[in-house]
Amino acid sequence: MVFEVGERYDLLFMPPSFPFGGMENPCLTFVTPCLLAGDRSLADVIIHEISHSWFGNLVTNANWGEFWLNEGFTMYAQRRISTILFGAAYTCLEAATGRALLRQHMDVSGEENPLNKLRVKIEPGVDPDDTYNETPYEKGYCFVSYLAHLVGDQDRFDKFLKAYVDEFKFQSIMAEDFLEFYLEYFPELKEKGVDSIPGFEFDRWLNTPGWPPYLPDLSPGDSLMKPAEELAELWVTSELDMQAIEAVSISTWKTYQLVYFLDKILQKSPLPPGNVKTLGETYPKISNARNAELRLRWGQIILKNDHQEEFWKVKEFLQSQGKQKYTLPLYHAMMGGSETARTLAKDTFEATASQLHSNVVNYIKQILTPKGS
Fold this sequence. Notes:
Strand 2 and strand 3 (28-31) form a beta hairpin. It is globular, with a radius of gyration of 21 Å. The protein contains 19 helices and 5 strands. It is mainly α. It has helices at 2-5, 43-51, 68-86, 88-109, 134-151, 154-168, 175-185, 187-192, 202-207, 222-234, 242-246, 255-268, 275-282, 284-287, 292-304, 311-320, 324-335, 339-352, 358-368, and strands at 10-13, 22-23, 28-31, 59-61, 171-173. A 3-stranded mixed beta sheet has the order 1-3-2, covered by helices on one side. A two-stranded parallel sheet has the order 4-5. Helix 2 packs across helix 3, helix 3 runs antiparallel to helix 4 (88-109) and helix 4 (88-109) crosses helix 10 (222-234). It folds into 2 domains: 42-207, Neutral Protease, domain 2 (Orthogonal Bundle), CATH 1.10.390.10; 220-368, Serine Threonine Protein Phosphatase 5, Tetratricopeptide repeat (Alpha Horseshoe). It is 57% helix and 4% strand. The relative contact order is 0.10. It starts with a helix and ends in a 5-residue tail after the last helix.
């Protein structure tokens, strides 16, 4: 299959205003400079874009409503590759951060939002760009993982994926094409009627908005997730037990373990008064990070806790890049915060609008002035 997608693969780093993590142009992926974290910690994005060589480029969705066929399969391939390269624990940890992003997205947009179906109906008034959210990625990943779970044998499912690409290469397909091929490839599953198991019907996966009916088991990541969860619990008490906190060394934690920890802190925010200030002073590795994933989470925590003395860090981060995944959550957090935070949103947008991609500008305008307001 490598020969089919080309013998050479290049990366082109785009200006900071580039609104995406990557764009999988065949054999020449465009990527955000935010990936240059200095520690190779965001290499999963490169794995993702390379995986698009097969899922999205060699086999393509027939219309924008089937976007999940590109992204769900690519997320699955990314995490299969990551498991082999970095181990199951790390990959499950990264997948847990993806699940947290899906939760945040559905909390903001509403689970019943029609755009939270896998198969989106592009009707008059629906902007296809709005389908670019966490749902086709993470819910799509869950559906492909569910299909692998039904097979029950990783090697067999890996071989199926290769057969799927070989069957549909250089074609644009619909979900029915893929699912029909899946059931023909695994006749024993077709005979069992796995497409209509109550609660997990293939039609429900495709056409019902909301949280995925099946979530992959991420317990292999417990060795990395549990210490982060336990440390987060120590930070939510009114009287901090600094002895217990300082007994936990985070110096060896990799980026996604820190991200997972910060996601837990964000979920538990607002924290008791003073805790965020102490948190930042205790972990300058986090509060002064240059890694974009950490800067995003720290900015969200600052805003959720109205820690105004560090609001400047939010503005600085937004002035440094225009990636949609980092920019829009911070504007949502600012507009959902205090009056000072809302003023920060308007001032930051005024200062940065000229350097942002037009799509990002339009989305920010919608956040600053919601319809009907």
